[in-house]
Amino acid sequence: MNFSEIINEIYSEVKCGETDGHVASYIPELLNVNPDKFGIALLTVDGNEFCCGDAEEKFSIQSISKVFALSIAFSLLGEKIWERMGVEPSGTSFNSIMQLEYEKGKPRNPFINAGALVVADILVSNLKNPKEEFLEFVKEISGNISISFNHKIAQSEKEFGFRNAALINMMKSYGNIKNDIELILDFYFFLCSIEMTCKELAQSFLPYANLSKPFNYKNFPLTKSQIKRINALMISCGFYDESGEFAFKVGLPGKSGVGGGIVAIHPNIYSVAVWSPRINSKGNSVFGMKTLEMLTTKTEISIF
Ligand code: GLN
């Protein structure tokens, strides 16, 4: 497979295309990013890497970190975590509160904000130093000790985090949040403010693609069956109310963030990360979706 030629071709084609997306403005600090940034990094499980554009520039990974948080919680508590959240697509936006009341404070899945707040609560209950241990896990899985978070972004989100505060208060009223709300929100905003490059992101998702290697980072092991479940959740819930569209057009497990990043994996073949900050109304990068749709179309390989 000539990934290099295909990636370069897609990059040039997508870059010249139209976009109706906008940089996320509900977290004011995210507006400081150059909307024209665009990078792609694809890493194969057999050790090759292909990068294009701004693939080595750091950006805010936002909700992509929900996959790492779920991985640690799943490793710590196993199947018990599903007592507190479901595994169904929500069909609603990432920060919607409507369903949460109907469903008595039990979020549909771990990748919408409500679910990720429950996961954050689980980590606060079970880790001695949640921020430190989370960052150590991300450093180890990405093989890069320089990974850090952006204090300004975390602060900006905290200042304007009214919606997340509403979600967590609603869940607390139903008894699905155990710790202090401020503590969990602070940890959650920290997770979202982690910064990575496309290359680092692709590297850190390679373990979800490389099923022949045992998964064990910072003593948080996951079985093959658990990795299968995380990948299944990425395909059914990774793009909120656009998850069906992503499966339909791209056909790979993946996860997006409002910083404009998208990461996707092809089991046993590759991991790919794209970053372009202009997102659509569902919170997903417009160029990111386009790039991955073209990638599986041109390579003629997806999981389907
Ligand atoms: N930090 C963002 C929030 O809580 C994450 C949302 C996202 O990336 N979809 O709203």
Would you spell out the secondary-structure blueprint of this structure?
Blueprint (H helix, E strand, L loop, with lengths): L2 H14 L22 E6 L4 E5 L5 E2 L4 H13 L20 H5 L10 H14 L3 H13 L5 E2 L1 H9 L2 H12 L7 H12 L1 E3 L1 H12 L5 E3 L2 E3 L1 H14 L5 H7 L4 E3 L4 E6 L3 E6 L10 H14 L5
Antiparallel strand pairs: 1-2, 1-10, 3-5, 4-5, 6-7, 8-9, 9-10
The protein binds glutamine (GLN).
Glutamine (GLN) binds next to loops.
Folded structure, characterized:
The chain is of the alpha+beta class. The protein has two domains: 3-60 and 196-299, DD-peptidase/beta-lactamase superfamily (Beta-lactamase, 3-Layer(aba) Sandwich); 63-192, DD-peptidase/beta-lactamase superfamily (Beta-lactamase, 3-Layer(aba) Sandwich), CATH 3.40.710. It has twelve helices and ten strands. It has helices at residues 3-16, 65-77, 98-102, 113-126, 130-142, 151-159, 162-173, 181-192, 198-209, 224-237, 243-249, 286-299, and strands spanning 39-44, 49-53, 59-60, 148-149, 194-196, 215-217, 220-222, 254-256, 261-266, 270-275. The protein has a five-stranded antiparallel beta sheet. A three-stranded antiparallel beta sheet has the order 3-5-4. The protein has a two-stranded antiparallel sheet with strand order 6-7. Strand 1 and strand 2 form a beta hairpin. Helix 1 (3-16) runs antiparallel to helix 12 (286-299). The longest helix has 14 residues, at 3-16. The two termini are 18 Å apart. Bound molecules: glutamine.
